Amino acid sequence: MVNLTPILIIDDEVQIRRLLEITLSASGYKICEASTGKEGLTMAATRQPALIILDLGLPDADGLDILKKLREWYEKPIIILSVRKSEDDIIKALDHGANDYLTKPFRTGELLARIRVAIRHSQGTIENPNLEFGTLSIDLANHTARKNNEIIKLTATEFSLLALLARNEGRVLTHQYILKEIWGMGYIEQTQYLRVFIAQLRKKVEDVPAKPKWLKTESGVGYRFGS
Q: DSSP letter at 62?
C-alpha cells in the first residue's frame, strides 16, 4: 500500500540524499530534498512535511541552529542523522527538540523503524490510555501495569518513570529530561539516582533484566523504550 507521507531530507551529501530517497521511496514515502539549511527552512514551510531528517553538518549553517529555528514553529518529528557521535552533540540535539538521533553510517531498517514510531506518535496514538507492548500492558488512567496479565507491583515513582518512557516509545530521553519530569529541577544532575530506579524497574518489567527488551540504555545520553 502506497504511503505518500511526505518527508523532507536536509543534508548536503548527495550520496546520503540518494540513499535515503531510494530507501524511503521504496517504503512508500514521498521525498523532498534540501542541501542547505536555508533551503531546508523554506521547504519545511512550503512543503509541510510529516517528518524531517536533518544533518548537523550543513554548508551554510550549523544543524543545531536550523533545529532551533524549525522548533520555533514546526511541531512534527525531526530526526537527526549525523556523523557527530559525541554525547554532548546528541544531548544538545535532543534537548533542543529533536525526536531522535542516529549516527552515520546507519542501518536503513533501524531508520525506517524510528520514522514509523515518530510519525505514529505525532498522529496522536501516544495519547491512548492503554498501551500494549506484547505481554506488557500499561494503563495510564488507572496507574497500573501488567505483565503476562498479572499486576506488576510498582511504586508511584516507578510507574511514573515507566509511563514516561512508554509514552515516548522509540524516542531517546536524556537523563536530565527524565529527572526533571519525574523528580523536578533539583534532581537534574542525579544520574546515579535515575540508574538505581531503572535497575529496579527492569527487575520487575523485563524477562531478563541484564538484557532488557523494553528499557534500553543509550550510553551516556539517557534511555529509550522499545523492543
A: B
Burial of 106 (0-12, 13-18, 19+ CB in 10 A): middle
Q: Per the CATH hierarchy, to which homologous superfamily does domain 6-123 belong?
A: Response regulator (3.40.50.2300)
Phi and psi at residue 52, to the nearest 5°:
-120, 135
Q: What percent of the chain stands above pLDDT 70?
A: 96
Domain boundaries, the chain: 6-123, 128-225
pLDDT on residue 129: 74
What are the cell numbers at 134? 506484547
* All three cell numbers of 1: 500500500
Are 201 and 158 a contacting pair, CB within 8 Å? yes
Protein fold of 128-225: Arc Repressor Mutant, subunit A (1.10.10)
Q: At what angle do helices 87-95 and 63-70 cross, to 10 degrees?
A: 20
The CA dihedral of 87, 89, 90, 94, to the nearest 10 degrees, is 130
Q: Please, are residues 190 and 183 in contact by the beta-carbon 8 Å criterion?
A: yes
Model pTM greater than 0.70?
no
How large is the angle between the packed helices 191-205 and 156-167, nearest 10 degrees? 90
- 3-state class of 54 per DSSP? strand
Chain mean pLDDT for the chain: 89
